[in-house]
Amino acid sequence: MISVLLATYNWPQALKLCLESLNQQTDQNFEIIIADDGSKEDTKALIEAMRPSFAVPITHLWQEDIGFRKTRILNQAIAVAKGNYLVFLDGDCIVQSDFIAKHRELAQPGFLLTGSRVILNEALTKSLLFWPHWDTKRFFNSLLSYRLSGGINKYLPIKIKLGDGSWRHYKKFVWRRIKGCNMACWKADALAIQGFDESMTGWGHEDADFIFRLQQNGIIRKSGAWATEVFHLFHHIHDQSHAAENARHVREKILAKTR
Fold first, then answer.
1. pLDDT at 243 over 60
2. Nearest to residue 39, comparing CAs of 91, 87, 81, 95?
């Protein structure tokens, strides 16, 4: 079974669309674990209201809001996951109806997957947040017009789905295209490196550190582009005051392994 580890913080309107898109999957053999980094009561109320309508189980993990501690809550989610394969997703992303199916198709022992995203602009994001429910058909019927108007930054990777192959494999660690909002690995591999580095607090680069340590442990990185794209809702930049320090932390690990 696949466990979707869904990180969220204080944006229930976006989380609602994300969950509704997960509830429309062609492959229903998965669970959802919401890794909540201290959201207010309205997020909990939303989850409780939506849970009865879901065909798949939803677990809500919550920790006190004392700063950005995404690594800590994700490690809790890894620990309780019932699936042997973990798909990491953010609550500000909407998924296609074959999202789980494509991740399952590309899952392979000894490999991790870094997926891709389609970025939505502010105007389209605001429009979607006013929809009463996520409507896949309505969205896809307007896909080309969204691209032509700049509402989305990609079109062909959504319309054309490519299969597996060695062309997806990375030969070495590269920082490029690592997005914590869409990546996957085997639970056993995540546990083998003790999950995310909880010393990394504040926004930025905990996903790159996680991928680097997986690769250092012998796991091969595979690209999920042209198969697993998610729709990333527009939001203003998070507080990046920790980003430079987190990046330095990762670079030190890389240098230590290459000396």
1. no
2. 91
Task: Give bridge partners of residue 30 from the DSSP assignment.
Answer: 2
Give dist(CA 180, CA 177) in Å, integer. 10
Which CATH number belongs to the domain containing residue 220 in this structure? 3.90.550.10
Instruction: Identify any residues that bridge with 152 across adjacent strands, giving them in sequence order.
Output: 120
Nearest to 13 by CA among 37, 43, 50: 43
* CA dist., res. 116 & res. 173, Å (int): 17
Q: Is the full-model pTM beyond 0.85? A: yes
Would you call 44 helix, strand, or coil by DSSP?
Answer: helix
How far is 256 from 160, CA to CA, in rounded Å? 40
Q: Name the DSSP letter for residue 237.
A: P
Decide: helix, strand or coil at residue 163: coil
Crossing angle for the helix pair 12-22 and 122-129, nearest 10 degrees?
A: 80
pLDDT tier for residue 240 given thresholds of 50, 70 and 90: low
93 strand-pairing partners: 232
Domain coverage including residue 46: 2-258
Please tell me the predicted confidence (pLDDT) of residue 201: 80
- Distance, in Å, from the CA atom of 221 to the CA atom of 169, rounded to the nearest integer, reads 6
Q: How confident is the model over 82-116, as pLDDT tens digits?
A: 999 999 999 999 999 999 999 999 999 999 999 99
Residue 172 CB neighbours (<10 A): 6
List the one residue out of 169, 152, 144 whose CA is nearest residue 118.
Answer: 152
Our count of domains for the chain comes to: 1
Retrieve residue 186's tokens.
Answer: 């085997």
